[in-house]
Design a protein that fits this description.
Blueprint (H helix, E strand, L loop, with lengths): L1 E9 L5 E10 L4 E5 L6 H6 L9 E6 L2 E2 L8 H6 L1 E5 L10 H8 L7 H14 L15 H13 L5 E5 L7 H16 L3 E5 L3 H6 L3 E6 L2 E6 L9
Helix pairs in contact: 3-5, 4-5, 5-6
The structure holds adenosine-5'-triphosphate.
The site of adenosine-5'-triphosphate has 12 residues, from α1.
GO molecular function, one term: ATP binding
Function: Part of the ABC transporter FtsEX involved in cellular division.
Organism: Salinibacillus aidingensis
């Protein structure tokens, strides 16, 4: 469960990105975050994994208040959260398999168990046959699937995605959305910032619209609500 209470964020340069956000998200929900460019969507979702620290207010994730946790507790928090970016952020010198295994928390796992976990998520994103490929040998959609595999390999309770289909063509975007729905169906909460009118209006989910740093709309099975 995620709870934001009167969250405000002013960056060092004086820009106020969020001004008084109150939102609750239950475990297992699928939420789109929409709104015009510069509205505060990325800031909103980066709060969840403490990439951004609120200037005031509370961000509570599964009982932990991120405004109060110590720096040394941040890795533990992030272990439960998978993040997917618009530009994939894969390590170019590593293979597909290595990009995923690199993210795996392996403290107590045997090599056999590690291999099984990595191959299981590569299977989920349909890339088992490209485990030995390097990122530059893959299409954009395949690279994004690797990044999803990396995000879910630790079985996170929350997956956050900042415009995950922003660099992909429409067909590939639908493939990515199918995987997101599959991840969500397994119980992971999904929060996705997007500018895709088509996706939001077709795969209906909860929609939180942000404008000028405030939530202006929060609807179950909502519409995108803007011209694309
Ligand atoms: N690291 C930062 N330092 C200073 N200002 C920032 C920083 N990140 C974002 N901002 C500013 O905060 C405001 C909100 O930005 P944010 O990236 O959250 O918007 P967004 O809705 O995600 O936009 P887009 O749809 O274009 O990605 C903008 O005015 C932006 O310039």
């Amino acid at each position: 469960m995620i709870e934001l209470r009167d969250v405000r964020k002013t960056y060092h340069n004086g820009v106020t990105a969020l001004q008084g956000i109150d939102v609750n998200i239950q475990q297992g929900e699928f939420v789109y975050v929409v709104g015009p460019s510069g509205a505060g969507k990325s800031t909103f979702i980066r709060l969840m994994y403490r990439e951004v620290k609120p200037s005031s207010g509370d961000v509570v994730i599964n009982g932990h208040n991120l405004a109060e946790i110590k720096e040394k507790e941040i890795p533990h928090l992030r272990r439960g959260i998978g993040v997917v970016y618009q530009d994939f952020k894969l390590l170019p010198s590593l293979t597909v398999y290595e990009n995923v295994s690199f993210a795996l928390e392996v403290i107590e796992d045997s090599p056999k168990k590690i291999r099984r976990k990595v191959m299981d998520v590569l299977d989920l994103v349909n890339l088992k046959n490209k485990a030995r490929f390097k990122p530059d040998e893959l299409s954009g959609g395949e690279q994004q699937r690797v990044s999803i595999a990396r995000a879910i390999v630790n079985n996170p309770h929350l997956m956050i995605a900042d415009e995950p289909t922003g660099n992909l063509d429409p067909d590939t975007s639908w493939e990515i959305m199918k995987i997101f729905e599959e991840v969500n169906a397994r119980g992971t909460t999904v929060i996705m910032a997007t500018h895709s009118k088509d996706i939001v209006n077709t795969l209906k989910k909860r929609v939180i619209a942000i404008e000028h740093g405030r939530v202006v709309r929060d609807e179950q099975r909502g519409d995108y609500g803007y011209e694309s």
